[in-house]
């Protein structure tokens, strides 16, 4: 129809809200400020950070890395016919017309209370690379490794 769609969350980590940091409702609306639309060609990936403020006036930095994936158009491309002779050939050719290829946006989003845009960009870029290259590493493990760090006790061994 109009080409506008609606975003949906396909997967999230953690799967359940943390008590002190609930998942921002409507985050999919911030991923595509211009709306969820299909494009006739693949666009280059984009990155931006939006700052959301919750009811307690606490800031949440939402880093968004968007790339485009091919999807099949539900409607075949139409070709004009000249109406003279060659009708059989044209009918056979038009039945072989492949649907137009369109590209849909897909976004990776990292939500944090910390303002570290370059770290967010690098982390999302790594997740994107693993996803696109089809590496046999689960996203759960990658994200767990990115988010897990050991902080030494003050005065303890480094």
UniProtKB/TrEMBL annotation:
Q: InterPro entries this protein is in?
A: DENN_Domain_GEFs, Tripartite_DENN, uDENN_dom
- Native organism taxonomy: Eukaryota, Metazoa, Chordata, Craniata, Vertebrata
| One of the record's GO molecular function terms | guanyl-nucleotide exchange factor activity
Q: Which GO terms describe its biological process?
A: regulation of Rab protein signal transduction
Taken from the UniProt entry, a GO cellular component term is:
cytoplasmic vesicle
Residue ranges of domain UDENN in the record: 1-158
Q: What is this protein called?
A: MTMR5 protein
Annotated region (Disordered) at: 73-96
PROSITE patterns reported in the protein's UniProt record: DENN
Residues annotated as signal peptide = none
Pfam families tied to this protein: uDENN
């Amino acid at each position: 129809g109009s080409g506008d769609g609606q975003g949906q969350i396909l997967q999230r980590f953690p799967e359940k809200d943390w008590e002190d940091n609930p998942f921002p409702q409507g985050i999919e609306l911030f991923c595509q400020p211009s709306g969820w639309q299909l494009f006739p060609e693949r666009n280059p990936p984009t990155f931006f950070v939006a700052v959301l403020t919750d009811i307690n006036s606490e800031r949440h930095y939402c880093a968004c890395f968007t790339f485009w994936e091919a999807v099949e158009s539900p409607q075949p491309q139409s070709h004009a016919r000249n109406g003279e002779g060659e009708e059989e050939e044209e009918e056979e050719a038009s039945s072989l017309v492949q649907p137009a290829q369109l590209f849909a946006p897909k976004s990776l989003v990292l939500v944090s209370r910390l303002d570290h845009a370059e770290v967010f960009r690098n982390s999302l870029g790594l997740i994107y690379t693993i996803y696109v290259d089809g590496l046999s590493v689960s996203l759960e493990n990658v994200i767990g490794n990115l988010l897990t760090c050991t902080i030494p006790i003050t005065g303890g061994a480094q």
